[in-house]
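Hey all, sorry for the wall of text incoming. These are the two entities for the joint prediction.
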Amino acid sequence: MRALRRFFKRLGSWARTHQDEERLQAEIEEHLAMQTSENLRAGLSPTEARRQAVLKFGGVEAIKEDYRAQKGLPFLETLAQDTRQTLRRLRKAPSFTITAVLTLALGIGATTSIFTLVHAVLLKSLPVANPAELYRLGKESRCCYTGGYSQDREFSLVSYDLYKFLRDNTKGFAELAAFPAPEPLFGVRRAGSSEAAQSYPGEFVSGNYFTMFDIRPYAGRMLTDTDDQASTPPVAVISYRLWQEKYGSDPSVVGSVFNLNDKPFTVVGITPPDFFGDSLRNSPPDFFLPLNTEPFVETDADLNKVDIHWLDLIGRIQPGANPASIEAEMRVELKQWLGSHWGEMSASDRAKFPSQTLYLTPGGAGISSMREQYEHWLLILMTVSGFVLLIVCANVANLMMVRGMERRRQISLSMALGAQAARVIRQPLTESILLSLFGGAAGLLIAFAATRLILHFAFPAFAGFASVPISASPSMPVLLFAFITSLVTGIAFGIAPAWMATRVDPIEALRGASRSTAGAGSLPRKTLVVLQAALSLVLLSASGLLTAALHNLENQNFGFEQDRRIVAKMNPRLAGYRTDQLSLLYRRIHDSIASIPGASSVALCLYAPLSGGAWGSGVWVDGHPPPGPKDDNSSLWDRVTAGYFDVMGTPIIKGRGISEQDTATSRNVAVINEAFARKFFGNEDPIGKRFGRKPGASREFEVVGVAKDARYVTFSLGRPSGPFFFLPEAQAEYSQGNLGSLFLHDIVILTRPQVNLSIVQVRQAMASVDPNLPVISIRTLREQVATQFTQQRLIARLTSFFGILSLLLASIGLYGLTAYNAGRRVNEIGLRMALGANRGQVVALVLRGAFGLILFGLFIGLPLTFAAGRFLGSQLYGMNPYNPVTTLVAVLALGLSALAASLIPALRASSISPLEALRTE
Amino acid sequence: MSPMKEKKDVLQGTLALMVLKTLDVLGPLHGYAIARRIEQISGELLSVNQGTLYPVLLKLEQEGSIASEWGASENNRKARFYRLTRGGRKQLQAESRGWEQTAAIIGRFFVLKADDLK
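and here's what came out:
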């Protein structure tokens, strides 16, 4: 308490220093006067009386010093003094200051920008109350449907039936909520509006979803358990974003009716602005509907299928409950539930029964599929930007050391006069920390701009959809990160120059001869240049590898033509079509678009290549022994209309493609790809063979053709295409399951050569078929393919940018060192030339010094590049990480820029005349 | 902090106690009078530079133990007078108690003979 009061008094008196000094002066004068008069009374002479008084009082200056130390805050005072002095010195050297601050801003800005993403994607919790109480089912996120009574590794998706069983029996959860793993789009039209339906992402959620997250409505109310019943009238909750952007914050939205997939829902509430659902994803849901309305909206409902697992679970545990014991409880419940369905289980399900288990993991971040997806590349970028920051540190340290050299005389003078080493260190350290704080402030601006740019490229938003809920503006943790990074950076590049500053021998320095300092401080600077060379080599070869991998990806043989192809996306579900109306709809769409003057041919399919989806199933081949429980007999498949392969430009290698002769009444046929033929038929001729998608139905389809392998799925891009088969749309099995596969999404249009088909024409053609059918997007196939590699392109470009930046910085560092060394060796060079050395020899002398360092950098950097290749791993899509070509290119790039950086000072050194050089002595 | 400074701090501690006691007994005094008083009582045993008193006075004032104001001295000169505050009186009481205790304990050790511990 007393210490605190004293601190404030000191703070106060520090502010009125001048006044207090006067007071002390007056008191001392008074004191001396009194003592003098007393001495006079004792009989001393006036002079002697005064002298004795002063003697008795003691050293006035020492007392004043002591008084000042008592009075103010010496630490703050010297800090302020140092800061003032440093600012003055920095102002006097504007070019140094600007260079240093800009360099630092680049380094800190790059690191902070990547950290903003790392923080948002990897570290941040959902914006809900007490996220630490949330737990979710499953260690990894899976999508989207899985059938049967067994799941590999862990039971992470559940059916509605299993959800209810777990919810009702697990006591440790205060609330356990469920929502489907797939994120559907809904065709949305406000009732009474004349506007065409538009598609928006939405989500079915269990009635306790908002209670579980503890989300309060922005307006109206959130969903409740009462809403989530088959019998209650359908209601929905709309996102704040859509309400604001699309409906202009119209308060009458709450309470009004919206048609979702042509089914009426009453909007009862608006979510709060910062809520984006249960997971961070590219386009957060705009509508939340009760889970029990799923059969009402979807033709092919999954809610009441006991063995279709499609729900993710997140729950809030009871305060103080132990998640481990809840997990144990749920494992028992899972076994009980599976046991109660023993009769329906297949042989392979029964065999896997003992190993069935589940895991609870912290769910504060939601279903973190984005986290898994981006973790590796964010890690790569964080490492890369860290390297850049290191190089920046080395560069600025180098600049500081040169400055330190220039100030050696001044420092040795102050040390000779008795300045403390701590005080001498503090000055350059203050300078470096101040510089890096300035750099950090400028870096925040760079980080903001860079983050916006990265977000724009990494998470491209569809028009009208919500964009990824990551903000580029720095949050508190990001600001803190930038501040700490700046501080640490400042200390990192300041400590060596500061330490070197005190390593001066006062006498030697005072001797004044420039030659006496030769050699000192050269080793640390050389080390820095070697370090920079090594780091930039690593970054260069990493960016080379990533760029080469991207090039391979983009220029692979996709198995289809990209030119002159346009893909329009739609979803007949969103306009409320029934399955029996679909064939006619497809026919009308085909004819309407084919009649556009520029269109050459048209085909529809479930999924066009690389559009982000595919259906999978098992394969049973007629005449082959059935696969065992461990055998992988899976294949992907697509449903297409006649002429599809011609429109796509996929060559048919054997037999024929899907054509008009395949009708509902003709035999059921399939076209397979080469990988399918290899996997299931080996050396046999597949044409005329039969296979099916269920055990005991192995005569379902007859193979009529083999198509060339084509890239359809957007994952496993580093591996060859897997097995795939194509079924004719005309032979859709309306009576069976898989009804969802009847809704074709993609329309592929082949345009005539040299014709530019406008989007408006396509939209008009679609609207003439049905104005209620929303067209989700129209783009060229080339664009669709290119967007698949957005992430790879971004990371390759960023790494290349960082690589070039680091090369530039390293070259500047080398240039600075070489120029400085050459300058210091002017005498020696002059002497050598006087003794007969020619210009070439002098150039070689200087270059030798520079290239010695670069060679050393290569020596350290090369093993690191191999480590970097391994670290990049899966980002290289199967490319060999020890690629001699990229390494060689990186080495050459480094060598050439080193040559450029050192040749200039070398040539300058060789052009001095010996006479002049010797005179500078 | 260097050891030299520590030594001074110890000295300042005792000096502060002396200042407080002096002001307690004699009422408001100016700096010179305090210095003279301490000299007289310690019987010149304490050879302190008079000047060291002023930093101590400042510290005590900052801590709120004493207060000061300008006034006129005996021979009508302008002088700064220091007086004990209520907090200072309390501090003095607490510290003198502590000091007496310490002195008593140390005193007991000094009269200790070998026999006493048998």
